[in-house]
Structures are given as structure tokens and as C-alpha cells.
Amino acid sequence: MQIDIRKSFLRACGCLVLFVVTAAAIPLCLTACATAQATSATTTASAAPSAPAMTSGTPYKLGINMLWGSGSDDEISARFARMKSLGISEARIDWEWRVVEEKKGQYDWSALDRFVQLASKNGISIFPIVHYAPNWALPTTKKPNGVYQNAPSEAAFGDYARFLAASIDRYGPGGNAPFSFTPIKYWQVWNEPNTKEFWGPKPDARTFARMMTTVNDTLGDRRNKVSLVHAGLSKADILFMWTLWDSDPQYGRLFDIMAVHPYFFNPQGGIRDINAMDKDKPEHAALGFVGSAEDGGYLSKVFNMQLFMTLKGTPKPIWITEIGFMAGHRNPYAISEEAEAKIAGETLAFIRNRLTSAPFTGNSNQKLAPRVERVYWFTLDDYGFPDDTGNFGVYRMDGTPRPLADTIRGLQADR
Question: Where residue 62 sits, what CATH number does that domain have?
């Protein structure tokens, strides 16, 4: 699939600016999920300042991704205890539509009731990713290679929105769940819709924008008591964002917080330098964008997302809802546990110092602050995939901590 980007009027600093992309057709980047984020390489031409110690910028809240679908109450409570030992009490979790509404129109809340009660009992705040459609809501149950979940059929967008609304009614502020619980204020609408892995069989920004419109219309006044977090985009995918706003110039009204998963794996293996950047494009750089639009796999390009939204007249806070590294030696993108611990500290310091409240750098538009307010590390525990692709955990499969645990614990203690 290709998109032909010609002209778009962007609002910048109170005036209209003509934004021209000179390429006749720019391929829509199909970026990968956490376990396979390799795109074509680009030339490293410039570098941001080296990452200093975490001494400047605004502290962001640090949470962590957590798998919970299996396990006894004691096992889940033990995961919560590992989380709290790191100084973290915010858990991003899968909130699976298919588990609750296996049959259309019939909600079985028992699994979520159990988890919400356990989280509240253990002092954990939940941040749900509402996704994974039931079979009846899918256009096909057959999944191509590499696809974790198919997109729901467009006819089921209303059903998805009603499930999200019912979840908010039950577990949100003032919710009607028949037990004491910590209300859930933040809800994330889907995961990585710009990848085939999570919006199979292939991403479609315009269709996703229509689902977001359905969600907004269905939630109505519920928007006043909760905050909708946009689906985390795989990398700083400005081309996907462009298509979202092209399909609806008022797209920014549909959510409260933008989200991104800025993994920076190197297509040649391992990870990119934290300060790396590819070549600017003159037509983009004139507006303040750093690097190219085609490859979002550089941490500093989170700034481009804030600049894009600001130029569109809808600046929003940004949450990094996934970032992490795989540890091991069997996968070309894996690094040693010792390197992981060191680079994780540098990454979290870089985010605080360069991507929170301080102005970015460079020309007038780059004086904007990227406004990252939360970071959710990926992930608490390994999840057993082969060839190190499941080795993103702070804790190994046997429950023992990696050196990364000390890094996170130390950073949390310094806040």
C-alpha cells in the first residue's frame, strides 16, 4: 500500500504553513512489534547531545508492562510483589475483549473482577490495553504468519466501543463493580495499529481512525471522567499519523494522550546508539522535524510526534507505553544482561532530560517540549518465546532478577 502525500496545511505558531513532501509516493512504513523491530537501515548523519545523568527535566511516572492471563491468586500477587520491589505500582496489562464477550452481547466479567480485586488489594494501579477481538467480531479467524491479532471487522467497531464503555462503567471512576476497587482512569484504545502484528492482516490508518470515531461517539460523557490513551504506535511513525489526520482533520479530539513504543533496534543487529539520528530531509527540517519521516526507529524522534500534533493544532501529552531490550545471545537484536542494565539507565535518563518538559533544541519549532509524562517498561517477566525474543523481562522465567532490576530500583529510589 502506498500513500501519495502532496500538500497539507499545518498550523504553526498561530499561522498557516504549507507543508510539501516532494516524493511522488512514500511507502507507508509497516513497523514491527517488540520482538521483531527491524526496518531498512538509514545512514547515521548526526547525533543528539550525549545522555547525561538524570539530573534535569521533569520526572515522569514509571510503570511496567505485565502479563497476567494465567496463574493463581498467589502467583499474580507474587508478580505484584516483584513490581513493588522495583518501586513501581503502575501496571499496563492486556484487557482482552475476547475473554469477556466470547458470545456477542454476553459479558462475563469474572476474570477481570478477580484481577482488579487482586491489584487493588496489592496497591497496584491498572492501565488497560483494550484489544483482542473475539472470533465473532473478526472478518476471519485465519491469521497470516507473524500476525498476533487481526483487526476487528468494521461492522464490529460499535461492539468494541460498547465493550470499552461497559468496562468504564464497571471499573472506572464511580464504577458499579460489586466490590471495593481502585478506579481505572486511563484506558488505552488498542495496540500498535500501524503494524500487521496487531492490526492484521495489514495496517490501515483510515480504518483505525473510523474505529476511534466510533469509540468517541459511543463513550459520550464518559470522556469527562476518564482519559483515553491512543494506541501505542510502533516507533515514531509520522507517516501513519499523517494519514490519521488526513482522514479526519480533527482527529486530535478523539483521544487525550498520544502513545508510542520507541524501540531503537538496529536493523544490522543489536541496538542503535541512544544519540543516533539519520539524515534530515530539507522539506521536513524547515518545519523542525529531526531526521527522516520513513524510519521512526530513533529515540529522539518522539519529539517529531509532539511537533506534528502541535502543527495540527492539537498538542497532547505523550506516554511511552513500551520500551525495553531483549537480553541474550541467540537473537541478532539481543544484548548482554550487563549491557541491558547500563543502556536502560541511559535510556531512562535520556527520556527525562531530553523528552519531558525541557525544550528540545535547534530551530524555533524545536523549542517545543516533547512532553513525555509516563514510561512503561517492557516488561516485568520473561514470556518464554524462543531465541531470546521473550527475554525482555526484568525477571527471568525462573523468577530471578536480571541486573536491570537494580538499575530500575536505583532510578526509582532517586526520584
Answer: 3.20.20.80
CA separation for the pair 178, 171 (Å, rounded): 10
Please check whether residue 15 lies inside any domain of the structure.
no
What is the residue type of 391?
N
DSSP assignment of 78-117, as one string? HHHHHHHHTT--EEEEEEEHHHH-SBTTB---HHHHHHHH
Q: Is 11 part of any domain?
A: no
pTM of the entire predicted model: 0.89
User: φ, ψ for residue 132 (rounded to 5)?
Assistant: 65, 90
Report yes or no on 178 lying in a domain: yes
Host H or E run for residue 126: strand 125-131
What would the pLDDT profile of 203-228 be if each residue is shown by its tens digit?
Answer: 999 999 999 999 999 999 999 999 99
Query: Which residue, 251, 113, 112, is CA-closest to 179?
Result: 113
Q: Is the peptide bond before 379 cis (omega within 30 degrees of 0)?
A: yes
Domain that holds residue 209: 31-413
Amino acid letter, residue 152: P
For the chain, how many structural domains are there in total?
Answer: 1
Least confident of 48-52, 274-278, 408-412: 48-52
